Amino acid sequence: MKTHDLAFSSRPKPSIATRLLYDSKDVAFIPYGDYWRQGGLGEEVRWSGRREEGCGAFGGAFGAIGVAKGMDEFLEGLVEERMNRYKRENGGSGSGHDSEETQDFVDILLEIQRENAAGSSPVHRDTIKAVLMDMLGGGTDTTATSLVWTMTELLRHPKVMKKLQNEVREIVRGKPNMSEDDLGRMHYLKAMVKEALRIHAPVPLLIARESIQDVRVMGYDIAAGTQVLVNAWAIARDPLMWEDPKELRPERFLNNSMDVKGQDFEFIPFGAGQRGCPGTLFAMNVYELALANVVHSFDLCHPSSQQQEGPILSRREEGRNSSYDR
Ligand code: HEM
Known about the structure:
Mean pLDDT: 83
Largest sheet: 2 strands, antiparallel
Order of helices and strands: HHHHHHHHHEEEEHHEEH
Shape: globular
Strand order of the largest sheet: 1-4
Bound molecules: protoporphyrin IX containing FE
Structural class: mainly alpha
Number of helices: 12
Distance between the termini: 50 Å
Low-confidence stretches: 43-62, 319-326
Number of strands: 6
Helix content: 40-55%
Strand content: under 5%
């Protein structure tokens, strides 16, 4: 992913991508090439997506093929509804813009489609639907799974939970809402999020890669067209890299620069290199914000840790950590 990044920058084509992602017209399953470089939509979306919110994709998150038809109907409805709204607001002229305040991802995709309609690379409806599928798959299940595992670990480690709550409550104290600045100061929260991602990599084998040329790695000859899986889960638990790898210890991420951005190869929950996850920044923000809000507003504890019966999740009473005080 570093020395041979280009050689492993394609993806194999699983049948799920053919059926659910409109013959791999999304971002995650497009083979390497011009179409991928343009995200199927033009340079602008692909790279602004990488910096901001990604234009997302995800394999494995979708189950039975039978859902394909239902999903297609849902996406058709969504796209149609936006197109009609646009026509209503622009008097059917086909030109003009949605107001930026009300514009969402679907509107932006449709705007790009309109802008490219007369050009040499028109954006097809299937491409829009495939990219939206990416967003749903890449942007929901992964982040939700990560949060669930983090809360599970916090329930198993009440001292870590307490430390985390103290940090969050201290920083947010008295404010109606949490800001991005507040999040930036929550170092223990960030360390906890990374530690949970390390132990429970939400995408354990990343998304399969495919070599685009013959390549030699550590003495092994790998032919062009070989499917390659990277076991990020095992790497993040490797005792040669990590001290007591099975122990939850957020402190290991404090006071060092190790990050999820694909530069530290012992820790790559979002992959690395050209095909690394473009939603990383967005996902981390959502994940941190959601976790900070949960531990700020609720006291969670495992039923077995309570002497008397009580809720697993109780709304915090201001100034009192009810579950732990008991
Ligand atoms: C905790 C949340 C997430 C995790 C753990 C995650 C993980 C991953 C991983 C492991 C890959 C494959 C990287 C590689 O091959 O090196 C990937 C690719 C991708 N992810 Fe994410 N992801 C998350 C959230 C998101 C979000 C929120 C979006 C967009 C909304 C997104 C969009 C994508 C896309 C488009 C790709 C394919 C990139 C390409 O093939 O060029 N992901 N993600």
